[in-house]
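Notes to self after the call with IL:
- keep both proteins in one doc
- input above output, always
- annotate only the second one for now

Protein 1:
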Amino acid sequence: MTTPFDDETAPRRPGLFARLRSSFFTGIVVIAPVGLTIWLLWTVMGWIDGVVLPLVPQTFRPEQYIGINLRGVGLIIFLLFTIIVGWIAKGIIGRSLIGFAESLVDRMPVVRSIYSGIKQISETVFAQSERSFETACLIQYPRRGIWAIGFVSTTAKGEISGRAETGGKLLSIFVPTTPNPTSGFLLFFPEEDVIILDMSVEDAAKLVISAGLVYPNAKDPTQPPELVET
C-alpha cells in the first residue's frame, strides 16, 4: 500500500543477483589481465625449456642435483646464450663470421628468401636507435579537414625524396590503425603539413589503442584550460 508521501520516482536498489553479477564482472576485469599474463609467461617458459633443455648435457641440468625439474632453467640458459652470441657478434671476428655466413646464404635460392624475411622482421622488432619513432604528429588524412594521429619515423631520402614534387623536406609518417597499432599505412608528407605534438609517442599510442578514450592527462580536452597568472 502506498501513501501520497511515497516517492514513486526513487531509484530501486538493485537486487542480489544484479549486485553479484556486477561484482563478478569487476573481478573478471581485475583477474583476467593478471591471469592471462601469468599463463602466457608460464607457457612461453615451458616452450623454451622444451626446446633448449634437450640440447643441454645431463650433467649441466639442475634436476640431476636437486631432483626437481625447475621451469625457467631453459629460458635462463637461452638468455645467457643469446647475450654471449650478441657480444661476440659486435666484435670484428663475429662480424666477419656473420658476413661470411650471409654470403653463403645468399647463394641458396629458397633459404635466401626465408632468411632475409626473418632478418628484416627481427631488425624491425628488436633493433633500437635509428628504427624507433621520433615523435607523434597530427596530419590531415585521408583528406583535408579530417585529422589523424601519426608517428614520424624518418626523413624521406633517395628516390622517394627526389621524385616527390615538393620544395622542402618530406617526412615518413606511419599512421596506425585502431585498436591494433602494429598495422597501418606508410605515408609521405611535406614537412609543413605535419603538426608535431607535445605528447610522447607512448601517450599517442595509448590514444590510438583506446579509440580516443584515453588522453594524456596534461592534454585532456575534457578538462578546462589552465589559467595563466599575470
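Protein 2 (the one to annotate):
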Amino acid sequence: MARVEDSPWAIPVAQIASRAGQSKPVDADFPAPSGIGDNIVGIKEGAPVHVSGQFDSIVDGLIFTGRLVAPFVSECTRCLKPIDEDWPVNVTVFFPYESAADKNAARGGKGKGGKSGKDEEVEIFAGEDESEDTYPLLENGAFADIEAMIRDTLVESLPLQPLCKPDCKGLCSQCGVDLNENPEHHHESTDIRFAGLAALKAQLEAEQGE
C-alpha cells in the first residue's frame, strides 16, 4: 500500500495544523494530474505545474492562497497556430480538519466554483451557512493533498475557444492565407446577381477578339 508521504501531491503541514495563526509557504513544481482538458485544449499529464502561495491555519482547517502556473498546450481556434504558453490562475481554497469536514458532509455541502478566464481568480471560502469546495487533509492533518485542487482549478479556468492573441484575424475563408501575416490580403468578389451578365460580357469580348 502506497504511503501518503510518497505522493507527489502531498505537502507536509503538521507543523502548522497544531494551532491557528501559523503559516507555511509553498513554492515548488508538482506534476499535472490526469484529466486536465484533452489533446486539443489542455495541460499534459505530468507537466510541471508551479504552485506558489501559503497555507494559513485557522480554527477549523487550513486555507491555501496562491497561484498556479501550468504549461498550456492548444491551438488557436481562428488561425490554427499552436499555442504553448504558461497559464496562470489565482486560487484560494479550504482544507478542513476532520471534524470540520464531517460537519460539512452532514450539511450536505456541495462544492462551488466558476469557469474563469486566464489569470482569473477562483475563490472558495469556508463558511457555516454556505456550501464550499474543500480538499483533504490526510494522516490526521499531517499532509495536504493538492492533486484535486490542481486539477479542479485548472479545468475550470481553461478557455473554450483559445486564441493565440485577442485580436487574431484568423485565416482567409477562401484560400486559407493567414490574415495576421497578410493584413492587406483580399479577394475580388462579384455579386452573384450579376454573374450571368459577367459571363455574357466575357463571351462578347472573346468573340470580338477573334
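Annotation: Confidence is low (pLDDT under 50) at residues 106-131. The chain is about 15% helix and 30% strand.
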